Every structure is written in C-alpha cells, then in structure tokens.
C-alpha cells in the first residue's frame, strides 16, 4: 500500500460526501457528527428501531457501537446490521465497552453470530473478549495476555473472518493474512470520550469510497492520526478541550502533503 491510496480516499470522501449511519451513544453523537462533517462525510446519528433497516439500506456505511443498555437497542442495531448485510454495505463494529458487563459480553458475541461485519475497531482487551481470549471477567485486564497485540489482531481476524483495527498506544490492522501498524496519533485522543466512536465512523467513511476494506482501514487510522498530531502540536499546553476543537478543524484542513509529511505505517508481519 502507498500513501497515494490515502490521498485518493480522502479526496473521494470530500467529493462523494458518503452517508454514514452511526448507531452510537448520545454522549458520542456531537463529536462524531461534527468530525464526519469536517472530514467531508454526511452523518446520520442513531434513529428509531422502525427506521433502522431503511436508514442502513441507504447509507454508504453503517457503524454499530456496543454501548447499548437494553434489549431494544440490541434488536435495533441487529436490524440495521442485517439490512447492511443484505444490501452489501460496509458494516463497522465499534467494540468500545464490549467487556464491561456480562450483558454486553453476551450480547456482543450473540451479535457476531447474527450479522457479518466488515471490520471491528477495539482496544486489545475488547478484541480479546470478542474472541473469548480475555481469560477473566470484565474487570480483569490482563496486560500479560494482551502484550503481543500484533498476534492478537491476527488471531482475531482469523477467528472472526473480518478486518481487525486494534487501537491504543500501538495500532494494528489485520485481515488474518497481513498485519500493518500505523504510527500516527496522539495521547490526547484518550482524553476525548468520543474519539473511538469518531474513528470508527472515519473507518466507515473510508470504506464507503474504497472497495479494499483493508486499505480503507489503514487509511482511516492515518487520516485520524495525522489530524490528531497536527492538532496536538497547535494546542500544546492547552489541554483536551482545545485539542478536541482543533482536531475537528484539522480533519477539515488535512491535505495530501501533510499525509506525505507525517503519515507513517508499515507492514508488521505476515501469517
């Protein structure tokens, strides 16, 4: 993969303005919607169970988030997921909080039996849970087990037959054959509660305009990461509030030359 692919994807998002259907938490909605608009996509946030299938069928990509607190919400995202599958629309699962409670653990695994997802974004612990390799309850975060994150991403991609986007201080993308690492990003993203929701939506935006979902995922991490690095540099010493505002600005202003200058990724290993 070359950086020119990232240029093309970013250009196409801004030209096509793909409709991205986001089924996310209320507290994540504002940043996700504003970030997508800045990038060039057209967001729809959540919706009723009665319109879930219709909205999903009209979208360029559908983003599902494991943050529901009741069975009705679970049925709504399942309905949207099935509609996306029926119409061949990229379906991105944001696994944020998948390991927080017994209900979420059970329902997230049940969801993966009902629908086929194009990509899953999560940290090492969330991904480990989804493949039942967390070796403990929701409160146990075994750093020893998740220390080899590249291998965990590769294993999860094979087990779940999907693209895994593992985020955190180290970032890996795997399709079960190849694994790439993206070095862009900033620690301040961890202080923005909706950052994972927005990144999942950026992955969906890239997938909406690029058939190669693996390259779309790598591109999304670079776009998100480079914008975050520039924003952090411009707001150095000002804290996460100013960073968040500048981050949205940089998603709008991001150029191909900045991707070339700051973008950093590499193939990590092959199976």
Automatic annotation (TrEMBL):
Q: Which residues bind substrate?
A: 194
Pathway(s) served: Cofactor biosynthesis; thiamine diphosphate biosynthesis; 4-methyl-5-(2-phosphoethyl)-thiazole from 5-(2-hydroxyethyl)-4-methylthiazole: step 1/1
Q: Which residues bind ATP?
A: 121, 167
Which cofactors is this protein said to need? Answer: Mg(2+)
Q: What CDD domains does the entry give? A: THZ_kinase
Q: Which InterPro entries match?
A: Hyethyz_kinase (IPR000417), Ribokinase-like (IPR029056)
EC code = 2.7.1.50
Give the enzyme class.
transferase
An example GO BP is: thiamine diphosphate biosynthetic process
Query: Which Pfam families does this one have?
Result: HK (PF02110)
Per UniProt, which keywords does this protein have?
Answer: ATP-binding, Kinase, Magnesium, Metal-binding, Nucleotide-binding, Thiamine biosynthesis, Transferase
Q: Which domain of life is it from?
A: Bacteria
Record keywords: Magnesium included? Answer: yes
Q: Which family is this protein grouped under?
A: Belongs to the Thz kinase family.
Function of the protein: Catalyzes the phosphorylation of the hydroxyl group of 4-methyl-5-beta-hydroxyethylthiazole (THZ).
Q: What is this protein called?
A: Hydroxyethylthiazole kinase
Organism of this sequence: Bacillus benzoevorans
Q: What is the lineage of its organism?
A: Bacteria, Bacillati, Bacillota, Bacilli, Bacillales
Which gene name does the record give? thiM
């Amino acid at each position: 993969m070359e950086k020119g692919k990232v240029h093309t994807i970013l250009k196409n998002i801004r030209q096509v303005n793909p409709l991205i259907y986001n089924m996310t938490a209320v507290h994540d909605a504002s940043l996700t919607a504003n970030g997508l608009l800045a990038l060039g996509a057209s967001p729809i946030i959540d919706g009723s169970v009665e319109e879930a299938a219709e909205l999903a069928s009209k979208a360029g990509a559908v983003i599902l988030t494991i943050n529901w607190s009741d069975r009705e919400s679970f049925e709504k995202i399942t309905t949207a997921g099935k509609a996306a599958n029926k119409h061949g629309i990229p379906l991105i699962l944001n696994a944020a909080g998948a390991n927080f409670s017994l209900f979420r653990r059970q329902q997230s695994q049940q969801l993966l039996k009902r629908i086929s997802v194009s990509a899953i974004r999560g940290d090492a612990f969330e991904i480990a849970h989804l493949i039942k390799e967390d070796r403990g309850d929701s409160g146990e975060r075994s750093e020893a087990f998740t220390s080899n994150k590249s291998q965990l991403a590769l294993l999860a991609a094979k087990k779940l037959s999907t693209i895994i986007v593992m985020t955190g201080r180290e970032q890996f993308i795997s399709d079960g054959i190849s694994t790439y690492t993206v070095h862009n990003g900033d620690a301040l993203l961890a202080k923005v509660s909706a950052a994972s929701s927005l990144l999942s939506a950026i992955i969906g935006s890239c997938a909406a305009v690029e058939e190669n979902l693996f390259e779309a995922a790598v591109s999304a991490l670079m776009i998100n990461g480079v914008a975050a690095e520039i924003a952090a540099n411009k707001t150095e010493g000002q804290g996460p509030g100013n960073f968040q505002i500048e981050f949205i600005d940089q998603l709008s202003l991001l150029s191909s030359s900045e991707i070339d200058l700051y973008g950093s990724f590499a193939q990590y290993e092959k199976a």
